[in-house]
Amino acid sequence: MLESLITSKTRLRLLIKFFVNSQNHSHLRGLSEEFGESTNAIRKELNNLTNAGILVKHSAKNKIEYQANVRHPFYTNIRDIIRKHLGLDMLLEQILERIGEVEQVILTGDIARGSDTGTIDVLVSGENLNHEYLNHLAKRLEDLIDRKVIFTLAPGRISSGGLVLFDRQAGI
């Protein structure tokens, strides 16, 4: 659906890259390799997004790196739209609904790095988690959001990397 509003595939991929996780950053050549597109097409979109204030750029080791501008007035709105586009809002809602005593929900893998490969890896930690419901939920979510969902369950709290969608202790 978002493809009909944002007709540039490159722009949409850049928004996903930088707004799924505000910690994601990259430079022109890295984006060109990751997306398999010419540097000119990516440079044009990076310039447009930077001129609009949606992205910020800074120099790092003789390279210009780009990152989401978390101070932009529409940052939260864009982030929420991108997460809805990927189905992350629905995924979180479904997990918390009937899975058990969820402590954390963390995105890992490609999607946490801002690459929409069609697979969403989710780490769920907590106690008394309903494994059977998760298996059923994975199949249902795949139909709803048109992406493969892989759940990994873990007891207790997790301190590894990834994008934290829910953390009971931190109030997120």
Kindly summarize this structure in a few lines.
This protein has seven helices and seven strands. With 172 residues, it is an alpha+beta fold.
Helix content: 40-55%
The total of beta strands comes to 7
> What is the architecture of the largest domain at the second tier of CATH?
2-Layer Sandwich
**Beta-strand proportion:** 25-35%
Average of per-residue pLDDT values: 88
| Terminal-residue CA separation | 27 Å
Question: Low-confidence runs (pLDDT<50, min 5 residues)?
Answer: none
- Secondary structure class reads alpha+beta
Described by the principal axes of the CA atoms, the overall outline is elongated
Number of helices: 7
GO molecular function: DNA-binding transcription factor activity
Keywords: Transcription, Transcription regulation
InterPro entries: DeoR_HTH, WH_DNA-bd_sf
Pfam families: HTH_DeoR (PF08220)
Q: Strands, helices and their partners?
A:
Elements: H1 2-5, H2 9-19, E1 25-27, H3 28-35, H4 39-51, E2 55-60, E3 63-68, H5 75-86, H6 88-98, E4 101-108, E5 119-127, H7 131-145, E6 148-154, E7 163-167
Parallel strand pairs: 5-6
Antiparallel strand pairs: 1-3, 2-3, 4-5, 4-7
Helix pairs in contact: 3-4, 6-7
Task: Quickly list its features.
26% strand, WH_DNA-bd_sf, Beta Polymerase, domain 2, 3-stranded antiparallel sheet, 172 residues, single chain
Description:
- The chain contains seven helices and seven strands, in the order ααβααββααββαββ.
- With 172 residues, the protein is an alpha+beta fold.
- The chain folds into two domains: 2-77, Arc Repressor Mutant, subunit A (Orthogonal Bundle), CATH 1.10.10.10; 87-167, Beta Polymerase, domain 2 (2-Layer Sandwich), CATH 3.30.460.
- The chain has a four-stranded mixed beta sheet with strand order 6-5-4-7, with helices on one face. Strands 1-3-2 form a three-stranded antiparallel beta sheet.
- A hairpin with a 2-residue loop joins strand 2 and strand 3 (63-68).
- Helix 3 crosses helix 4 (39-51) and helix 6 packs antiparallel against helix 7.
- The chain is elongated, with a radius of gyration of 17 Å.
- The mean pLDDT is 88.
- One of its GO terms (molecular function) is DNA-binding transcription factor activity.
- This is DeoR family transcriptional regulator.
- Residues 19-58 form the HTH deoR-type domain.
